[in-house]
Amino acid sequence: MITLHRLRFAFAPVLALSGLALSGLSSACSSSSSSNPASDAGTTTDVGTNPCGVAATRVVFLPAGSSEADVQKAFVGAKTGDSIVFDKGTFAFSNTLTLATDGVAVCGQGMDASVLDFTAQKTGSEGIYGDKVKNFSISKLGVKNTAGNAIKVLGGMQLAFRALKVEWTNPNPATHGAYGIYPVQSQQVLIEDSVVIGASDSGVYVGQSDTVVLRRNRAEQNVAGIEIENTYNADVYENTATGNTAGILVFDLPDLQQLGGHGIRVFNNTSKENNTKNFAPVGNIVGKVPAGTGFFVMANKDVEVFGNTFDGNQTANSAVVSFYVTSIDIKDTKYYPFPTRVTFHDNTYLNGGKKPDISHDIGLLANINMALFDGGHVPDIVYDGILDPAKPAGTNPMEVCFKNNKDATFGNFHLDKLPKDGTDLTGILTKDAANYDCAQTPLPKVVVPGLAE
Questions:
Q1: Is 132 left (phi over 0), alpha (psi -120 to 50) or beta?
Q2: What is the pLDDT at residue 292?
């Protein structure tokens, strides 16, 4: 018998639990690169409107051919109200660009027109780093081949990431940075109309944040396309995640400053053919995610998932799971590991679950039990069935609901009943979703004041 040693959930302890275009510049800053030689780098002008799309007092223009020192000077010397504007062209860097001034906008002339290239980066763990900045926006730029994370803001407020392209082009994924667009411990965040390719953790990531709108982005060839982690109040919509290891993830982890992720709406997205082999570095939590995962909610509460298309994700199109599927010991006494009040409704499911990733435990378990599943494929909606023993007994104590998901198959794996060394779901698997045919009160729209009304 095949033994899934990492799926031993230690349930005895568990049961004891209780932009505007550059043409908007004044004549002093709107010339082409041919009339703005590198010696003019840092040319400034007073303006009434920031060409990056917000009110401004000064523009710092960086023409094609500007040196790294010119750009560093603009970032270090930035003042509140500045707009740092890159001309068309490729700008090469060996160090992180750091910004610590509030009220600054950074922009270019298009994600493929103005490219910040970090291929030769020698120092720094980010390409662009914003330290506790407020009223910061970055738009219409490409960021390429950073040694670590591409664009990170820590502890920010009122952040806008628009029309960006982040990518790693080295065919060796071990050289790729972890995160593409990466706001963390921030409030009032908008990420829109951007593309991220090749991150070794997550392409578009929001962690330990509050009040977030993430829309119309495209994530390709990352380990996780889009992640919402330990975050409060987020709308994730009209995004496309394709060709990643996993498409879209909403989860809560222990041992972080902010716990209890909740108030997340995931709607009108497409998560398609996310079957790329997992290339996360050893030890990363996303390294536990099997290739072929379209979407999952883990240990969050008040999550509404609707109007999405999940297509061709070959381990499972979607799932609702507790933290116990990771087989990681929980030491954080404040952490709640169970998903609660999660609703899936009016989603479309196609072509999923036909070839689970057997290099990961859950995929292997699914593969062993393929003959038990309706249609000969892993159910479109998988529920791990692990319940909080402190909840009153009932058919659906965690208030998990699945309604009007056209032609979707369902499977409750009841992993809390899986024998310690077992792999057989016979007599455990529940395929009837009648007990979960319910609905929760729709969650409210998330509004980011001044950015996404």
A1: left
A2: 98
Residue extents of the structural domains in the chain: 5-436
Residue 23 CA to residue 110 CA, distance in Å, equals: 12
Which CATH number is 5-436 given? 2.160.20
List % helix, strand, coil for the chain (3-state, nearest 5): 15, 35, 50
The answer to whether 94 and 123 have CB atoms below 8 angstroms apart is yes
User: In 71-223, at which residue ranges do the beta strands (DSSP E only) sit?
Assistant: 82-86, 89-92, 97-99, 105-107, 114-117, 126-131, 134-144, 149-154, 157-167, 179-184, 187-192, 195-197, 202-207, 210-215, 218-220
Token couple for 270: 């497409």
CA 157 to chain CA centroid, nearest Å: 18
Residues in contact with 428: Cβ distance below 8 Å, sequence separation at least 6, in sequence order = 413, 414, 417, 418
Q: What percent of the chain has pLDDT over 90?
A: 84
Q: Could you read off the pLDDT of 186-216 as tens digits, one per residue?
A: 999 999 999 999 999 999 999 999 999 999 9
